[in-house]
Amino acid sequence: MMKYIFRFTPKFTAREEIILRDYLALERSKLANERTLLSYIRTSLYLALGGIAFLQLENFGNINWIGYIALALSITFLVTGIIRYHRFKRRLWTFYNNMKK
């Protein structure tokens, strides 16, 4: 298993059987995780569009660097969002499986 630099929560061991309230909480967490991924994608697309717009300006050749920075940030946001989505999804899956035992 991969070691992460920042671990936000300690490992959890469930003592009780999963009930409806816990199941619904897990579903809310999954939906929030998906919504956060979509926010990362939206931000990435806005940065890409802004970067392309800056690169298309003809009379402002000395500010092309802003466009390149925006494009680099766009890729960074997209990759970060995907990594965080999958990491949290895996942690929820592990948590759910621990609760079922």
TrEMBL record:
Keywords: Membrane, Transmembrane, Transmembrane helix. GO terms for cellular component: endomembrane system. Its main location: membrane. It is a multi-pass membrane protein. InterPro entries: DUF202. Residues 28-90 form the DUF202 domain. The chain crosses the membrane at residues 37-57, 63-83. It is found in: Endomembrane system. This is DUF202 domain-containing protein.
